[in-house]
Amino acid sequence: MSCTTLIVGKAASYDGSTIIARNDDSGSGKYDPKHFVVIAPADQPREYHSVISHMTLDLPDDPCRYSIVPDVLPNRGVLAESGVNEHNVAMSATETIAVNPRVLAADPFVAYDEATGTPGGIGEEDIITIVLPYVRTAREGVERLGALLAEVGTYESNGIIFSDADEVWYMETIGGHHWMARRLPDDCYAAIPNQLGIDGLDLDDAYSERRNSMCSPDLRDFIDEHHLDRTLSYNDHSPSHFDPRASFGTATPKDEIYNTPRAWFMQRHLNPSEDWDSPDAPYGPNSQDLPWARQPEYKVTIEDVAFLMGSHFQGTDFDPYGTTGTAESRHRYRPIGVNRTGQMTCMQIRPWLPEAYRSVMWISFGCGTFTAPAPFYANVTDTPAYLRDTPGKDASTDSLYWTNRMVAVMADAHWFDTDPLVEQYIEDVQVRGHELVEHTDRSLAEDADALADDAQPVALDAVRVALGEANQEMATWLQRRTQDLLNEVLLTASNGMNNAFRMSDHWTK
Ligand SMILES: N[C@@H](Cc1ccccc1)C(=O)O
């Protein structure tokens, strides 16, 4: 369990796009090499087999093309993790969460039974692969996954993020078959650690218009039958008079070390004028009642997302690289920017642009503290080798993933000497990234007539070629710049070795 999610509505983002981002972290002590690839319809399975739960699932015969950032090694299945399809629907799956024992007793997980060989249900390994290629809106994603959960069940608790050019939906599974989903208000963001977070569900809306809430068809009966509702009328803070977080979720001491501090720090950054640090602050790192969604004080940028996804409680006594507090306080809470991040993909969908080039995947590999996400257009037929051909086992400077991992290890060990080098790299990647996207958008707009409806098929292929070229240009620049950073950090770290000795045998220039 270790990811961190940040989602931003189109009226809360700097440019009117919807933005969803998640650190895809592996378990403690493990590191999963990642790459960026396109799955063509012909390569999508029609009969799907999962690894972990030994499940077989028939899939529709009409998948669309989609781009994902999966594991390189097949040992735990696909684990697509982050993806955008050619209809400009994005998914990030999953934010591992937890439900309380009452829920698990009422609706147990559907796990693989090794003794009998009985297959289990679906899980993180499968979710994007069996949903994203078949949906045209974020809502359809929620509906398809909800139906699959009811049909085959799941063996774990997950938060799943869906977005399109208009809406962001966040879905949480509840036990083995049940689920709920909230539409993120357009003017809000939600900062989500590994904890069931939805703090209000309008069941009346979910059973009628479904404007902002959706859920399992039998959720209301499930709640009543198993006495799961813990909302008390005289203490009802939930926006819709039913508090799922209190009813289905957890609020343990471990949550106050591992989860609530991350939500607190993200809200502290995006709502900076509030009191977050004094003894009288309404919320602290251990608060279990931080709002699920809230309006930011300023429009949220890609740089805000990148900073937070690589953050480590800067400016507080909890910063593992800090100089205030104590050795204990600096390692008290689990930072968002952690050593075992495999990839962070921030998916941005821009409604004002033609569908052909509406979606951008800002991708970084390795620990976000020592790198920055670079933009890659999603609607392409292939991806640059520097991000596609990550070796599954051997570190190599020929791939972005391994180069970032090597930089991070050395920069971590020599934090104060290398931080200026990393900060400059981050700024250079962000500047180049925005330059490339703006230039590419503009040059495609100048060919707008090529996108006229009657020229669609030919035009779309031409646009995909142009987007592929833009992605390659980004990757080529990124490879040179990242290699430069590796060289700089290596030199600095070499001079900082414990056996360094300033005297030389000959005073050389
Ligand atoms: N989804 C997990 C991380 C994870 C990734 C891949 C496989 C298993 C777990 C989390 O939220 O931390």
From TrEMBL:
Q: Which GO molecular function terms does the record list?
A: cysteine-type exopeptidase activity; dipeptidase activity
Q: For this entry, list what GO says about its biological process.
A: proteolysis
Catalytic activities: an L-aminoacyl-L-amino acid + H2O = 2 an L-alpha-amino acid
Q: Which UniProt keywords apply?
A: Dipeptidase, Hydrolase, Protease
Q: What is the enzyme's class at the highest EC level?
A: hydrolase
**Record protein name field:** Dipeptidase
> Could you tell me which Gene3D superfamilies the record lists for this protein?
Penicillin V Acylase, Chain A
The EC designation for this entry is 3.4.-.-
Hydrolase listed as a keyword:
yes
The family this protein is said to belong to:
Belongs to the peptidase C69 family.
Q: Which InterPro entries match?
A: C69_dipept_A-like, Peptidase_C69
